[in-house]
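The aim of this short unit is practical: by the end, you should be able to scan a pair of folded records and say something sensible about each. We start with the first protein, listed as its amino acid sequence and then its structure tokens.
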Amino acid sequence: MRMLILSRNATLYSTSRVVLAARARGHDVSVIDPLEFQIVVNRRRPELFVGGAPVPSYDVVMPRIGASITNYGLAVVRQFDLMGAPVMNGAVAIARSRDKLRALQLLTLQKIDVPITVCARSPAGLEAALSLVGGCPAIVKLQQGTQGIGTMIAETPQAAHALLETFWAMGQDIVLQEYVRESKGRDVRIIVVGGKVVAAMERVAKKGEFRANLHRGGLGRGIKLPVSYRKAAIKAAAVMGLEVAGVDLLAGKRGPRILEINSSPGLEGIERASGVDVAGAIVDYAEKFAKKHRSLSRAGFMRRFRASISAERVVGE
């Protein structure tokens, strides 16, 4: 199988682990920086070039698009989509998950529990917004942040006003979110691949920090997932349309509450904490995904592609 990984750096742990797992299974793997592609739009058919040469066909394409290149990276993935390439995590699905507010809107349409979240763009409604999320402390988030970057806690209304007004002045879109006190600086990261949970870990924030992200110094340990957490993670990934997803959730009084979904989850922390070969599970699923795609006609692919876009307009049952 010819496999392409879209990644800015082939030496990153997650990228290199997938490469090693694929090669161990006898696959031919290429890693190309999304910024190296030239997107060709014309009347005949969509094309991609690298270094002045047409991109060859691949059995499966795996995007690992970082937040720093979201726009161009998504344009490249979208071009692969339009060319009919088998892409594990299409552009529509990645865009859904990357926009925090959009993702939460779609999750709640499907009756998936999330922390109460308010998006406001004017100081005039800030007092009402704070009241809606249960007052302070409250979480302030950039809509496009990752790895805990752009996630802050406002301990007082004055702090909330200062944070929001500063970011609004910078033209940033911000969401205000309920602080789930019972989580106590802990969250759960679950990796879903092909509609199945393959690994999970609990993350615990370091002392003095409310974010449990490992990049923020949090500690991870493998856990046995309750059935409700497993079901919530699988459903959340499906709502986003992601074949591979990292689902973050909190333990709430009502059960699991989805925080966010990552389309390019890091593998290092969860592989070490859980002892699971997540990269191997991803490659195993890629084999099945490519085989399934080969049996899909061009017309069938386009129907599925259009349906994934129009699905956002339909309220879940």
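Turning to the second protein, read its sequence before its tokens, just as you did above.
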Amino acid sequence: MTRLVADLGGTNCRLALSTALGRPLIAGQSYPNAAFDNFSDLLGQYLDDIGQPRFAEMVIAVAGPVKDTTAGQSAEITNRGWRLDSQDLSQSMGEIPVHLFNDLSALGHGLADLETEDLAIIHPEDSTAPLAQKLVIGIGTGFNVSPVSATPLGVSCLKSEYGHVALPLDLHQALDAQIGEKAHAFKTVECCFSGRGFAALYAAFAPEAKAQSPADIMADSDRAQTMNFLHFYADLLGQLSCNLLKGFLPSGGLYFAGSVARNLLEGSAKSTFLQRYTQPDPLILDLTPPVYCILDDAAALKGCAKFEFPAKPENTQC
């Protein structure tokens, strides 16, 4: 059975086809959202480009909150004003099954299929039970987490809006010690740990420097001031990770996704992150799970391909 899968981010959309539950993916394409007025137009362009293939179902990962409705799911790409509804998409595609879920949930469904080359090992694995709980952490345009629970019956990825949680006290104190009263501007986790937060924190750390994007800041890591900031930020991320360990008990590991996390943890600031992350905590002495960065840009698509639609109840006669 052929399935169309899509990873709809705030800037770009990746699409592919899967001919079996899981991999391999075929006919992969990527499109800039700015070139289209809505998702339906983007989808139509993709289908035209690959020859109007037939497919029996569709699963879409969305970079944003997904709401359950009486008929399915709905989502909105806020920076484009696009609204998606699984029932509307189903009707437009001939009443096929359609499922929408958050992109971090999609990553959670795909974790088991990631190969060695798909992951950067930040803190090595000791011995982890294959069904141990894991935590996907997305640091990109925004911030969020998705707890992943794998059982013999399948994978469950819990919803969360952790980015909107108030910044923990220990992190606020660390900011206050470094940037003083400017720390009060970073009220939530996402205010600090996101692409926008990363750039805003750099501006507070180095007020004389010109405004820069996260990518430009990372690229300027040869400068002593920038390097000092990256180590400071990596220490904060280590503190946050320790808080997440206590909050979610992910003995199966932390899986970071997003360009900010990838660039930071694969660079020279990795050592500072690990120094903080591996400090003994008297409350959870026996819990220092492995840490990975997801490198595969198609990981969310693989999760969409791996997702299993709930079985329909069979009709019974009395």
